[in-house]
Amino acid sequence: MPLLLRTVSLIVGLSAAYNLHAQAPDLARDSAFFRKQVPEYQRWLDHTGMGRTLRIREVEADTLLKVYLQFQYNDPDSVQNAWETLKIAAERRQPQSLEALLFFRATGCFDVDRDHLSLRIYDTYDLDKNFCFKRKIYALDGRLTTDSTSKCRGFKKDYIPIHPGDLSKVRAGQKTPANAKRVSKAAVFEKTKTFFTKRYTTKTCPGRNVRTTFITDAPNLDDQELVVMNLCDEIIREEQPGLCAALHYFGHDCNWKKNEKITLRLTYRKNGDGFLLDLSVEGRYGAGPYETEGRRSYHDMETDFDAELSEYTKLLARELNLYLLEKL
Fold this sequence. Notes:
By secondary structure, the protein is α+β, with helices and mostly antiparallel strands. The protein is 32% helix and 29% strand.
């Protein structure tokens, strides 16, 4: 059987940080944290150029976190054109849909799992008016789902050109080729699970217990997600302060390096007789263990350590690609 060209593509920094305590549905207690993260999400929208078209309006938290976005335009014709233009530009530069791009960045920024997030985009928030444009993006049985209404109409003479901005900062998938025989999705995910398990269960961080948990690993889904907590020197490399050397000299344990929590997502897509894998890495960091500090004490690597996160994801993609070439 001839070898088939296969691609492992890379999406940098687009992912979700899943709360391992997702079983507890009371998100209202973290309302202050969610409101604090609103400027961070807007910062990302502006960073990618999408902030010229969309802005975050507000968040609401109860058993579900609802994130509301709105357009920078008021008339229906501009709203419809803005969305279509933005969608084409975004999907030309990376393999995820615009809906997935916005949704999974929200899971990372607000540190919630997909089952407890609803992203909503309306053309108007005036209760006296009817919606002509609506997108509700959420997870149903683990799969990303979109309920949509697009009935905006406008006179052609009112057409306003929309420039969604420079989406080049939404880092495009970097493709690395791999030749392989035909293999099933289940077989691919079995190998990637082995790769990640071996890579991260051997990680050590003095004074901390590194934890590895597969959040999404169902054979009927198209993605696999892994959360690794209590890492140090994995993405953010730093020296210990001088006092630590003195404490070590006298036999005391000392580790003041940042505590890292990373989420990795692999998304499987068929490509002829082969397939594509999209790898995304999202990172958060804090001063103490995530189990005790929680989401309110952790910060987003996407905006604070952009270069380090980008380089880490590229290296990880290359390692995974070489592993799959050997094992499949």
